[in-house]
Write a structure and sequence with these properties.
By secondary structure, this protein is mainly alpha-helical. The chain has 17 helices and four strands. It has a two-stranded antiparallel sheet. Strands 2-4 form a two-stranded antiparallel ribbon.
Amino acid sequence: MNKTLTNKILITLAFLFAYRILAYVPVPGVNASVIKDFFDANSNNALGMFNMFSGNAAERLSIISLGIMPYITASIIMELLAATFPNLGKMKKDRDGMQKYMQIIRYATIVITVIQAIGVSMGLQSDHMIGKNGDAAVIIDKNLFIAIAAASMLTGTMLLMWIGEQITQRGIGNGISLIIFAGIVSAIPRAIGNTVTSFNTNEINFFVVIGLVLIVLVTVGVVIYVEMGERRVPVSYSRKVVMENQNKRIMNYIPIKVNLSGVIPPIFASAILMFPSTILQASTNPTIQKITDFLNPSGYFFNFLTFLLVVFFAYFYASIAFNAKDISENLKRQGGFIPGIRPGEGTAGFLNEVASRLTFGGAIYLGLISTLPWVLVKFMGVPFYFGGTSVLIVVSVALDTMRRIEAQIYMNKYQTLSAVGL
């Protein structure tokens, strides 16, 4: 393996290890055992899902308890604004404007983190957060704790954001996706342990365990099959271009993935649905409690909303990720054309039509993967939460990282051959 690639992999692993270390650094002034008991009692609702995405940092009230979700929420808001306001959209496409765009996201992340941190710190002081022996979750002055918790969680989220950016720039893969990946993977041993415990205590029988394993394997298989699927639109080049580039490799097709939006829609949907449920969870108001129950991940309404949001974001993000007009213009400049399709606007319209059809199938696939495994598991009577979103994220991020590693290996081989040729 090339030394450069080895260094990138080691840098990525080092930053992910630092992320896992931060998950064990608690916010000062809390009774960790009370918080742990509270999350154990709420493992099947929004708090359990929130804890999973944070890599079990929330149940320890770590400084990274909020995870990377404030950053994702800020990114969602900015994407929606960029699609609504043309000037903001132009800023995003421009190289210098992109720096300002990312800076706005960082400031928005700070605001969202502070709001969530204050909400969580106030919620820890409610009557719900009383331990089995009557112990309180907060063991210092309440007002002082709010200030300390807000500062600590803000620092933790900023560190996570920085780690994600460093992985993207200096390591392998998308840093933010890998952080979410690492958080979910870290919960797998506990999930296996819960399954074994439930089997030993006769909460679930042998056939349910086999069914659960089959659901996981089928979900993984479907995700791999669809994520690797693509429509290859044939492209021809004029004879002059081919002769001028006879010693260069010319791609004779345009690959359009079935799932153009990747794992972004499920992550966006989860972030939006978890934000209000996390804030409202500690309220004792009957009306707010009813709203919180509706947003319970173990409820049908939550999964119905998840399906709708995933489909919406699949279309929304695909329209941003795939720009048919730019592709058609690049083809025209390079002397390329799609057989039977007029260059320019005709090509852009054809590509948009192909992408739209693929996006429909991809959106339905994402919506079903995000909800159907939960429906099957609930029907089987499994006493803990399991969703396809986590499987989708883990498999998709793993496939994307493998592709990037392979691309780096091929690039290194090409550079070596070029050096030998010289």
